[in-house]
């Protein structure tokens, strides 16, 4: 699998895929996409990088253990439901803030935070499985 | 009491939980001196409840309630009456000194902050237990005491004995807790009431319901395990593995008294029946004798005290079991006396251990000169335990003998049991408080000297309280004993207590008899100890061993069941799962005859047909593939074709996800295949392949038919209309699928991602397990490889 072409292309491919996954994540509320799909794309990006260049560089690149990323995502998602409690609404009622940024109207919301959590959960869990499987005894 | 003060009661009851959160930080900053600050919390609770005393002694009761889960009738409601006030005062008052004591005892311990935390959690649980009004609230706090005592007993978790003791306490008291929960659920079901204060207003409601017997037994199950009644007594002495502050707290006024509290609390509802007055005195009496006899056998200060605690609990249960007002009054007095002297004595034992380095009475002696303050406190507490004049223990003994003599048909037997038990307790008291301090100086492992003020404050104050409470007999009687007694009997009770017996009568002679017997036995202590040891060795089996056998039996049973259900052969699992799936989808169709109609030839364009054709080719490729890896990749062809179909029929999100899932499944399956080191080819005999094919076809056809049948049903568009209408306006999103996932059905998604995280963890664990057998073959190399891997992971 570790051909020169693959190894040369893989880092760029991974970077592009991760970027694309974030794009898919953020557009999800209005266009096809979302945290789950984005997470899957990012996870496959990491898997490709792992197959091409070995698991250790991937682990170094993502700094945290993939399961920690996953657990943090779950934490973030659970947290995203809390702000509504402060406003005496039931848990997970969505909250929106809109503000102009230069000429664009930017919408921030708790569902977006929730979706980012979903993204992290999926990236972490799938990448953790894929990387653990890619790791051979010889590594 | 003003309303505002009453409202802060919830704050007072829950304050220990807040303190538990603060304790580690405070300890980090102030080291062991944090105890001075932290002790203010129980002190605050103590003074708060002291504010209730005047009102409660006039017969008032208070119910403080906050909504918790109102739809289930579960409220955070608390009931303050004579019974709960005295308990709350004991818990918080003794708790204050325990916190101080823990500050001195674990000085410099790296986990002291955590220890304070556990202590406070336990204290909060106890406060909730004794004031809990709502049965479910009470039960939750009851369970919390079990859990927190598990943490406390197992505090020294590096020692196997601690872990075992903690687990044992949890299993025994937790098991009893389950019985109690069942009892409470029965009570709620039978009476339709959930608040204790309401139940107490109709005391006969349970006795007349026809469900008395099961409720009685279940409540008893909870109370007896918690209060260490024979044959559940064994966890209590084992819990001595805990650091001494824990023993002093749990076994004087709190944990083990919870069962007695429950019996006292439920006495108006369950008490004074033939069953009650037979079962309770029987078990209580046996526990009293077993406890004292086993105490005599011990030479370890803490264990001796622990067994006398068992005995005292037996005495209390026996007295409560008589349902005679005078005996109940004796029980209340003895409970107060016991909490004070036992708390003090445990702390003394801990101080001796801390300063002299041993708790073995055969290796202690002549510490009087080195530890004068501790010695004084020990004497005062021990005199109360012996029932000497003028201590609260003396009054308790007078009253309880008066009570047992009135206890109907069993009066003589009960009195005799009490006399023997008390005489033996006198022996222990003397052995614990006098032997280490008097006599010739014995060389101890550490050079003994007086402990710091943190260590002796508790014993001194508690033992002096035992003296003051007796001297101020009248106040004690009207302010504490009377109100508590009336809570137990369920009607206003008059108490008349005298420090100096009003008339020379039977109880005084019984008391004198007890002293005589006790002193006689004290001088035969060594012979008595050998005798009991001999008998126990002859029996050779006890509930403690029984517990181990029970646990071992449970483990081998579950092992057997697991081996039977989970054979460990992947092929069997897969076959069973898919056969079950096939049956589940096909059987209902067959039984109901709901086969779908044959659909008309669909009108597809040529490229749609083309994609379907590709999917079919992918499937054929799977079947004819020579190697497993080729089969897996070929399966991907079919998956991508399906994704394209989704795309063409207007479900871009679904298609998108299908693409990704398909890619990743192929990658991960391929990785698994390479890792499992399977034979790349499938070498099964033809017959086995046919069976697999039949199962696969069954599942596939079954699922296909189900899908067809479902889509042939008229489509109910209410939900999709709703989402289409409100997705933009309410949730500000045009992508309905995503809006459903993150907003409308966000809670479902939260559950799903939790499952994803857990699955990730489990798969990771499974992958790591696989490396183990190799490690075993070449231990060193394997471990090294694994360590390297772990490092890489970090």
Automatic annotation (TrEMBL), chain A:
UniProt keyword list: Cell membrane, Membrane, Transmembrane, Transmembrane helix
Transmembrane segments: 12-29, 35-57, 69-92, 112-133
InterPro entries: CPA3_antiporter_subunitB, MnhB
Superkingdom assignment: Bacteria
Record flagged with keyword Nucleotide-binding: no
GO cellular component, one term: plasma membrane
Pfam families membership: MnhB
Localization (cell): Cell membrane
Membrane topology: Multi-pass membrane protein
Residue ranges of domain Na+/H+ antiporter MnhB subunit-related protein in the record: 5-126
Main location, first listed in the record: membrane
Keyword Transmembrane annotated: yes
NCBIfam families: PRK12509.1, PRK12573.1
Family to which the UniProt record says this protein belongs: Belongs to the CPA3 antiporters (TC 2.A.63) subunit B family.
Protein name: Multisubunit sodium/proton antiporter, MrpB subunit
Record organism: Roseibium suaedae
UniProtKB/TrEMBL annotation, chain B:
InterPro entries associated with the record: CPA3_Na-H_Antiporter_A (IPR050616), MrpA_C/MbhD (IPR025383), MrpA_C/MbhE (IPR046806), ND/Mrp_TM (IPR001750), Proton_antipo_N (IPR001516)
Alphabetized GO MF terms: antiporter activity
GO CC annotations on file: plasma membrane
Domain MrpA C-terminal/MbhE: 693-773
Cell compartment(s), UniProt: Cell membrane; Membrane
Domain NADH-Ubiquinone oxidoreductase (complex I) chain 5 N-terminal residues, every copy: 71-116
Annotated keywords: Antiport, Cell membrane, Ion transport, Membrane, Transmembrane, Transmembrane helix, Transport
Bilayer disposition of the protein: Multi-pass membrane protein
Domain MrpA C-terminal/MbhD: 614-676
Start and end residues of each NADH:quinone oxidoreductase/Mrp antiporter transmembrane domain: 133-416
One Pfam family cited in the UniProt record for this chain: Proton_antipo_N
Membrane-spanning parts: 6-27, 34-56, 76-101, 113-130, 167-191, 211-236, 273-296, 303-320, 332-352, 373-396, 408-434, 455-482, 502-523, 573-591, 606-625, 632-650, 656-674, 686-710, 749-767
GO biological process: monoatomic ion transport
Main location: membrane
PANTHER family: NA(+)/H(+) ANTIPORTER SUBUNIT, NA(+)_H(+) ANTIPORTER SUBUNIT A
Name of the protein: Multisubunit sodium/proton antiporter, MrpA subunit
Organism from which the protein derives: Roseibium suaedae
